[in-house]
Specification:
- The chain is globular, with a radius of gyration of 15 Å.
- It is built from six helices and three strands; from the N terminus they run βααβαβααα.
- By secondary structure, it is mainly alpha-helical.
Length: about 150
């Protein structure tokens, strides 16, 4: 999907699979100040626009990531590109969406908070993630006090 500033979707944030879910737990923490500032900007755009465009690969969050290499791939030592693509695919499957879809925030939030999505995501993507201690309390709340 190619949106230019003259098209209605030009201001919608572009989000890859795992960011659709992980941004729901964003509380102001990240790799460094430029990354966190960008996360705030993306989440504010998402709130303001009320929707996002689902993309494959690099998105509006990735552009400020310190692990983004010159080829546009994730070079984070623990997860890296293959793991990121695996959890992107998992997120898209759980949310029943695909690249190119426009996903409304009022649809996204209940999907992420549904017991099936929350439990599967926590078990299949969160366990062992470096951000687990940051996001963990959110999943405890979603799962009714059972994050383990």
């Amino acid at each position: 999907m190619n949106d230019t500033p003259d098209t209605p979707n030009a201001n919608l944030p572009r989000l890859r699979g795992h960011h659709l879910i992980c941004l729901t737990s964003f509380k102001g923490e990240g790799y460094d100040e430029p990354f966190v500032s960008n996360l705030f900007a993306v989440t504010h755009r998402l709130e303001d626009e009320g929707a996002c465009i689902v993309v494959e690969g690099l998105d509006d969050v990735c552009v400020a990531c310190p692990w983004l290499d010159v080829s546009g791939r994730c070079s984070e030592p623990k997860s890296g590109e293959d793991e990121i693509r695996r959890i992107d695919a998992l997120a898209l499957s759980l949310l029943e969406t695909a690249p190119g879809d426009i996903l409304a925030l009022n649809v996204l939030r209940p999907l992420v908070g549904s017991p099936t999505v929350a439990e599967t995501w926590r078990r299949s993507a969160c366990d062992g993630c470096e951000w687990e201690t940051v996001c963990g309390p959110r999943w405890v709340d979603l799962l009714g006090g059972d994050a383990g």
